Amino acid sequence: MVPVIALVGRPNVGKSTLFNRLTRSRDALVADFPGLTRDRHYGDGRIGDKPYLVIDTGGFEPIRTEGIVKEMTGQAQLAITESDVVLFLVDGRAGLTPQDQRIAQNLRESGKKTYLVVNKAEGLTETAKAEFYELALGEPYTISAAHGEGVKALMDLVLEPF
Ligand code: GDP
Ligand code: MG
C-alpha cells in the first residue's frame, strides 16, 4: 500500500516548499489511485524503496460561516480524510499562533496519525520547538523545508510503518 501524506498548516508555514522537496512529479499517478479526488494538488515521491503520495492542502484561510470561523476549507478536510498520515507544519520562527491551536484541535479530533513538524528551523536551537509541545500532538520534529535539513530523518520515521 502506498501511503498518502497530507501537508497541513496555516498559510506561509512552508507546505508548498516541502511538497516540492518531497515530490518529483506533480499530479502524476493520481489516475492509478482510485478514490482520490482529482482536484487537489498531488505529487509522488520515493525514499529508498518506499513510494508515497503527497497532498499539498493549500488554503487554510479561515472562512466565516454563520458566525463560526472554520479554520479549514472543505478541501483541506477532505485531504485529511483521504490521507493515511498528516504532516502538520508550524513555523519555528513565527512561533505558536492561535490558528495553529485551532488546526491542532481539528487534527486531534480527526484521530488521524499526525506528525508535528516545526519548519524554518535552520539555525534555530532546540528550544525553539519547546512551545509546540503545548499542541498535544506529541514530539515536534524540526526541519528546514527550504534547506532540506531534517526532511530525510522525518520521512524515514513517517514511512517506517508502510
Ligand atoms: P505555504 O503557504 O504553507 O505553502 O508556504 P510556502 O511553501 O509558500 O512558504 C512560505 C514562505 O516561507 C516562502 O517565502 C518560503 O520561501 C519560506 N520558507 C519555506 N520553508 C522555509 C524554511 O525551511 N526556512 C525558511 N527560512 N523559510 C522557508
Ligand atoms: Mg502553499
Give your account of this protein's structure.
The termini are close together. This protein has 162 residues and is of the alpha/beta class. 35% of the residues are buried. The protein has helices at 15-22, 74-81, 98-110, 151-159, and strands spanning 4-8, 25-26, 41-47, 50-56, 63-65, 68-70, 85-91, 113-119, 140-142. β5 and β6 form a beta hairpin. The chain is globular and about 35 Å long. The chain contains 4 helices and 9 strands. A 7-stranded mixed β-sheet has the order 2-3-4-1-7-8-9, sandwiched between helices. Strands 5-6 form a two-stranded antiparallel sheet. The chain has a single domain, classed as P-loop containing nucleotide triphosphate hydrolases (Rossmann fold, 3-Layer(aba) Sandwich). The mean pLDDT is 84. The longest helix is centred in the middle third of the chain and has 13 residues, at 98-110. Guanosine-5'-diphosphate is lined by residues 9, 11-17, 119-120, 122, 144-147. Associates with the 50S ribosomal subunit.
